[in-house]
């Protein structure tokens, strides 16, 4: 940037002429020297101002360049994120959950006591975003703290799938994933539900936690409707397992795949605090073609939840229909369960609940003495939205008379 002092010289000339005219006489040499010194001081001051102005302009130019580079870097980061060109750490996600249980239950009618403390589950999540539209998710679980020969626990891979978004409304997944049935099968982190133990209906009838390997298509819309349709590996039960659904989970461990299963679900969450859902599943042969006395199996499940201010309500009904003379002969052709769970949130930290559950998956003569029912009452104390302490009391009323009653305590977290 260039500056000129021409205006200053002109001003000096004018000032000298004016001073001489005003004095009406020729100035002395001394007076001329004083005037020149005064004008030189003015010139020096103006040059100093010009230098300061130049420095400010240079600083503005430097800031402009820096801002431009920052904007370009932000744009590049956004483009990198959308194309998956960032570092691995930028695209990696990590999480987990766990729960510790203490059971102090007295058995009666032939049922055993249960006095036990157990770190029931330790689970780690890992995810990776290849692009905005393509991602991976996995879930690895250690049950009962120890696994291996003669140990009570297991190490299980519960999820490992790839998900791809076709557009804003439709996506697909392929791999090993949890089936969308009921409340707890997909969302079972301890701070998200009441009670130390998972309820018996979703545990024994659905049966949570239940994962399979396959593929599916999902849809979701702005009106709160979402749905999914899947084809995947199926259950494998038999007369030796009393055709119980929970005993038929293969957990995708060299799972027999003679007969695949098909699942469809729909959910509505268009009203704040409300969730309504339903699931239908069909499998052509629940024994994987190994038992000629059994055949197809169909699951129908409905659930609903509503939270209005402090009051909450959950209810669920699920029923299996097993075809074949084998299940029918031992009363296992119809396995069902339901529960109703009202709750009251006292404040952000405390909530109380009650639950009545009834289920029947017990094979027995003419389906007699096979129903179970249980009452649960308890409290949740959230130390943080993701950390909870739990206490409840259970009372059983079973047709076979084998019952356990007592206290359950628990701690859970997720992140």
Query: What is the CATH architecture annotation of the largest domain?
Result: Beta Barrel
Helix/sheet category: alpha+beta
- What topology, given as strand order, has the largest sheet? 1-2-3-4-5-6-7-8-9-10-11-12-13-14-15-16
The proportion of residues forming helix, as a percent range, comes to 10-25%
Number of strands: 16
Mean pLDDT: 90
How many structurally independent domains?
2
Listing every helix as H and every strand as E from the N terminus to the C terminus, the arrangement reads HHHEEEEEHEEEEEEHEEEEE
Number of contiguous helices: 5
Sheet of most strands? 16 strands, antiparallel, barrel
Give the C-alpha Rg: 38 Å
Shape field: elongated
Q: State the separation between the terminal residues, measured CA to CA.
A: 58 Å
Strand content: 35-45%
InterPro entries: Porin_dom_sf
Coiled coil: 29-70
Signal peptide: 1-22
Protein name: Porin
């Amino acid at each position: 940037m260039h500056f000129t002092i021409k205006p200053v010289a002109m001003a000096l000339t004018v000032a000298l002429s004016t001073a001489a005219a005003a004095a009406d006489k020729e100035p002395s040499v001394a007076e001329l020297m004083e005037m020149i010194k005064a004008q030189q001081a003015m010139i020096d001051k103006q040059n100093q101002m010009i230098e300061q102005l130049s420095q400010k302009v240079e600083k503005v130019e430097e800031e402009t360049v820096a801002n431009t580079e920052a904007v370009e870097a932000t744009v590049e980061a956004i483009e990198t994120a959308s194309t998956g060109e960032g570092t691995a750490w930028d695209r990696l996600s990590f999480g987990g959950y766990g729960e510790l249980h203490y059971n102090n239950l007295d058995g009666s009618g032939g049922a055993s006591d249960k006095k036990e403390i157990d770190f029931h589950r330790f689970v780690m999540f890992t995810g990776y975003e290849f692009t905005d539209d393509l991602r991976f998710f996995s879930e690895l679980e250690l049950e009962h703290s120890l696994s291996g020969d003669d140990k009570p626990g297991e190490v299980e891979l519960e999820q490992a799938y790839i998900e791809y978004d076709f557009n804003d409304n439709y996506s697909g997944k392929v791999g090993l994933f949890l089936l969308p049935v009921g409340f707890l099968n997909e969302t079972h982190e301890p701070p998200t539900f009441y009670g130390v133990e998972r309820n018996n209906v979703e545990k024994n009838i659905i049966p949570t936690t239940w994962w399979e390997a396959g593929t599916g298509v999902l849809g979701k819309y702005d009106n709160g409707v979402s749905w999914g349709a899947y084809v995947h590996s199926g259950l494998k039960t038999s007369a030796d397992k009393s055709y119980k659904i929970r005993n038929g989970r293969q957990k995708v461990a060299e799972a027999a795949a003679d007969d695949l299963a098909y699942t469809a679900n729909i959910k509505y969450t268009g009203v704040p605090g409300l969730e309504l859902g339903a699931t239908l599943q069909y499998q052509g042969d629940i024994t994987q073609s190994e038992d000629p006395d059994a055949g197809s199996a169909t699951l129908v499940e409905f659930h609903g939840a509503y939270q209005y201010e402090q009051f909450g309500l959950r209810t669920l009904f699920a029923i299996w229909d097993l075809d074949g003379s084998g299940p029918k002969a031992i009363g296992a052709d119809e396995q069902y369960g339901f529960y109703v769970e009202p709750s009251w949130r006292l404040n952000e930290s405390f909530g109380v609940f009650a639950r009545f559950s009834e289920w029947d998956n017990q094979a027995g003569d003419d389906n007699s003495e096979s129903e179970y029912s249980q009452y649960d009452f308890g409290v949740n104390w959230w130390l943080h939205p993701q950390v909870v302490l739990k206490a409840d009391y259970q009372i059983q009323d079973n047709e076979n008379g084998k019952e356990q009653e007592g206290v359950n305590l628990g701690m859970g977290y997720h992140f």
